[in-house]
Specification:
The complex is a heterodimer of chains A (363) and B (277). Chain A has 363 residues and is an alpha+beta fold. Chain A has helices spanning 41-49, 91-101, 106-119, 135-148, 165-182, 193-199, 217-222, 227-232, 265-273; strands spanning 3-12, 15-25, 30-34, 56-61, 64-65, 76-79, 153-157, 185-190, 202-207, 210-215, 239-248, 251-255, 260-262, 279-284, 289-293, 299-308, 313-319, 322-328, 339-344, 349-352, 359-362. In chain A, strands 6-7-8-3-9-10 form a six-stranded mixed beta sheet, sandwiched between helices. In chain A, strand 7, helix 5 and strand 8 form a beta-alpha-beta unit. In chain A, helix 3 (106-119) crosses helix 4 (135-148). Chain A starts with a strand and ends with a strand. In chain B, 71% of the residues lie in helices and 1% in strands. Chain B has eleven helices and two strands; from the N terminus they run H-E-E-H-H-H-H-H-H-H-H-H-H. In chain B, helix 3 (100-112) packs across helix 5 and helix 6 (163-171) packs across helix 7. The chains are: A alpha+beta (363), B mainly alpha (277). The interface between A and B is medium-sized, with 25 and 17 residues.
Chain lengths: 363, 277
């Protein structure tokens, strides 16, 4: 089913939870709503579910406006962060509950419950009560209850955040596989950019109720629309250096209090277009910072903290009051307090407008 | 040794404070089974005090009629209270409507209101509704007076059910009413049980309302019946037989004691369920 969110605004009293949001979700697509807590992503989900009514705007399913349709008539499956299993019912009754409400014949209910339970490998739990299950099992039951309805739309509200790290990794892959296998249009709410990046076809990044960017994970990573997306997507987050633009012969430099960076060819034309701007922000991802002996680099920085991550080493550096992060392959030959030289990969630099946060250009 | 004193002291204080109550109950038990007592010392053993179970007592109706009336009053009032509390509390806990906050404050104020000041007004209302001197009339009055507490306690239980569960029910295909009946009510069942026990005991112990609003002897509840024994019935020369009174008192209190033994688990939840604003 195709889901269109058109100019959706949702207010609670004076608080604006979602503002003028428009998203077009294709049939069978897996879309993540990503943002920090309180950004309005769960509000969007509950509005699509029909729990909240839009203050302005429309929700359409396959082109038909459903603003006034009660939740039970929307044929939606939903998994809550708390799983929201009915504690007074067994697992079987939980999964069967939506089907019973539709007055489905008993045999058909049984067939569907067993099929869904097999799909999620929880057949042996059917007689238990939710209170007797582990978090991972409860999550499976919740997903099973949502899928047994054979919904047109699956809504997932942070379904992984109550699982431990190892289970989360398993469930992540599992949900992605199921979604592709069943082809159900899915909206997934999360504050974890890794979850969104690994699972979703497209990601809508929200901040304070406003859509920042709606694009594929790869595009969000390589072409962030603004500072917020650039910082939110990618772990560890992008480094930002704010300075003023100065001309040195044919070269353009961004100059800060204790440093200056010569802009590479790729960024020069962008920078020239905004020369009237007094200040600019240069963005560079930690994986695009190279370290060198102190006399070689373009910048000189002090090693502040070293965090070995196994495959890489995350190095925290400082230049005066400026903090930078670099992700470099081991072995790491320096120690805390050493002065090292820095290069920024000239092919992966970004320029942002410090006032609006908007991306000006990238090399 | 020091530790022992430290742990034992609170119990000692509690025991000393409870002693008068314990003595009362002790006297009730001893007095009910002896012809006379000197303080707590019985003078022999007898069952003759219990003859009122089989033969009417003076010109009064049988005590079994009074027991039935007490049961009907307490049971009827409990059922009405539960029905209204569980719906009203759900509305106050879950629905947003104009005047909700005001209504909640009103409930609290009414809970604190001294209902005794309403006695005469209630009399007129009951008479106007032709419910004076009827069990259902008194049950309704008792319900009205205890509703603030019932609503407030049930609201605490509803508040403790997560919104997610109710939303899940709505998405799974329930109407609001179905969600209330099939998901919310089962989840507050401990609260309902607690309130039921609490209300039943309260109704069973009620004296003032049946005494004032049900004067006919055929409507007497046990509490009124026992009062008539201590105060003397109409045109009766007062001769107080304490042994019989003790027996009647024991007859009155025994169901409550047994009830308590089996249901105290639920009663405790009235407080564990918590009252959240």
């Amino acid at each position: 089913m195709r889901v269109s969110i058109e100019r959706l605004t949702k207010r609670f009293g004076k608080v604006v939870a979602v503002q003028d949001l428009s998203l077009e979700i294709m049939d069978g697509e897996f879309v993540a709503l990503l943002g920090p807590s309180g950004c309005g992503k769960t509000t969007v989900l509950l509005t699509v579910a029909g729990i909240y009514r839009p203050t302005h705007g429309w929700i359409r399913f396959d082109g038909k406006v459903v603003n006034d349709l009660p939740p039970r008539e929307r044929n939606i499956g939903m998994v809550f962060q708390s799983y929201a299993l009915y504690p007074h019912m067994t697992v079987y009754e939980n999964i069967a509950f939506p089907l019973t409400l539709r007055r489905m014949p008993r045999a058909e209910i049984h067939r569907r419950v067993v099929a869904a339970a097999q799909l999620l490998q929880i057949e042996e739990l059917l007689d238990r009560r939710p209170g007797q299950l582990s978090g991972g099992q409860q999550q499976r039951v919740a997903l099973c209850r949502a899928l047994a309805k054979e919904p047109d739309l699956l809504l997932l509200d942070e379904p992984l955040s109550n699982l431990d790290a190892r289970l989360r990794l398993l469930a992540r892959a599992e949900i992605k596989r199921l979604q592709k296998e069943l082809g159900i249009t899915t909206i997934f709410v999360t504050h974890d950019q890794v979850e969104a990046m690994t699972m979703a076809d497209r990601i809508a990044v929200l901040n304070q109720g406003v859509l920042q960017q709606f694009d594929t994970p790869e595009a969000l990573y390589t072409r962030p629309a603004n500072l917020f997306v650039a910082e939110f997507i990618g772990s560890p987050p992008m480094n930002f250096l704010e300075g003023s633009l100065t001309v040195h012969g044919s070269a353009l430099r961004l100059t800060g209090p204790e440093w200056h960076v010569t802009l590479p060819e790729g960024l020069k034309s962008w920078a020239e277009a905004v020369r009237d701007r007094d200040r600019l922000i240069l963005g560079v991802r930690p994986e695009h910072v190279r370290l060198a002996p102190s006399e070689e680099g373009e910048l000189r920085a002090e090693v502040y903290v070293i965090e070995p991550l196994g495959r890489d080493v995350l190095v925290n550096l400082r230049i005066g009051s400026l903090r930078l992060r670099a992700l470099v392959p081991p072995p790491f030959p320096w120690k805390v307090g050493d002065i090292v030289g820095l290069h920024f990969d000239p092919a992966h630099l970004y320029l942002f407008d410090p006032h609006t946060g908007v991306l000006i250009g990238r090399s | 040794m020091g530790n022992w004193i430290k742990k034992g002291t609170p119990y000692l204080i509690l025991a000393a404070l409870s002693l008068p109550l314990l003595l009362l109950y002790a006297w009730l038990f001893i007095g009910a089974f002896s012809p006379r007592t000197h303080g707590l010392i019985p003078e022999g053993f007898t069952l003759s005090n219990w003859s009122f179970l089989f033969t009417p007592w003076g010109n009064r109706p049988s005590i079994w009629v009074a027991a039935l009336n007490s049961t009907l009053l307490a049971g009827g009032y409990t059922v009405i209270l539960l029905l209204i509390s569980s719906t009203a509390a759900y509305a106050l806990s879950r629905l947003s409507f104009r005047g909700r906050r005001f209504f909640m404050m009103l409930v609290l104020v009414l809970h604190a209101f001294p209902s005794i000041t309403l006695l005469i007004a209630i009399f007129y209302v009951l008479r106007a509704l032709r419910l004076y001197d009827t069990l259902i009339g008194v049950a309704l009055v008792k319900t009205a007076l205890e509703l603030p507490l019932g609503v407030w306690v049930m609201k605490g239980f509803f508040d403790n059910v997560s919104w997610d569960i109710e939303m899940a029910a709505l998405i799974d295909g329930c109407s609001r009413l179905q969600a209330w009946r099939r998901v919310m009510i089962p989840m507050v069942r401990p609260g309902i049980a607690a309130l039921a026990v609490f209300a039943f005991v309260l109704g069973w112990n009620e004296f003032l309302l049946p005494y004032i609003y049900m004067p006919s002897a055929r409507n007497w509840t046990l509490s009124v019946f026992i009062r008539s024994v201590t105060a003397g019935g109409a045109g009766e020369i007062l001769f107080v037989n304490y042994g019989v009174i003790a027996a009647a008192g024991l007859f009155y209190v025994l169901p409550v004691l047994l009830f308590f033994l089996f249901t105290q688990r639920y009663l405790l939840q009235i407080y564990a369920g918590g009252v959240k604003g």
